[in-house]
What we know:
The protein is of the alpha/beta class. The protein is about 45% helix and about 10% strand. A six-stranded mixed sheet has the order 1-3-4-5-2-6, with helices on both faces.
Amino acid sequence: MPINWPRAATKxxxxxGEQTNSNGEEPKMxxxxxxxxxxxxxxxxxxxxxxxxxxxxxxxxxxxxxxYEDWGLGKVDANCGRTSVxxxxxxxxxxxxxxxxxxxxxxxxxxxxxxxxIESKYVGETPKNISAVFALAKxxxxxxxxxxxxxxxxxxxxxxxxxxxxxxNVSRSVMLKELDEFSGISLFAxxxxxxxxxxxxxxxxxxxxxxLPDEDNRDALWRHLIPDQMPTADDIDFAKLxxxxxxxxxxxxxxxxxxxxxxxxxxHGVEATVCMDDLVMATASVRKSKASVGNRSxxxxxxxxxxxxxxx
Length: 312
């Protein structure tokens, strides 16, 4: 499989049966590319029980004929060809990396999709884009990965008051139909899986919670994420880093390491080394940001004195 599938827009629209709509909008499908997965499951740091859940989903794909033919599960599962895996949990815990690792383990390319790429302001275009991306995955034997999947698998609207509401429900219905008919593997990732429509929940074979890293995983993450070529002082204390990073995700640790390296570089230039104090201060900064920026509960503590007089 090619590493970088050429954009459809580089070819005449007639080659793919695609045309711009009456408003001149380019087809959304021109943005989708096949991606060759770069790492396998062994490179992802996960709790043991989470890893086992993912391996069970892989077994379903690899031994489909045993389960559904030799063992007779095809008689009770009307959609025996469908394999959908939902990866859910807090931001920064590695859901996207897990999706890529699953595709790597199955030795198939990956098509990454988010709702912004398939959504259209023109009536009827979004369902067509959904169908087209499934068709592309079938044609290329690729796994489909829907990031921020709550935007795509959200609840259908029971009260339809305008054409946009109707469009949302039509898109959801098309997504359900495509999932039922797709014999490949579809992957979903979300920080807000509670917003899924129950009809999608039922159609997804495996729901895997990707949690915040525990103590052992945080130790492994710190050791893995600090690059070997980055100059570090001899005072790096991994046990302390594990302790002060409780409740943080792997993505938060990456941010802390970048901040620490930047701080060291700004002080001493290219001859600098990253010391333990750099990492401690950067980790504290990341924790403070998570607690105060984008955290609605933190706004409850704003007092009248903290607000400029002009805004009272």
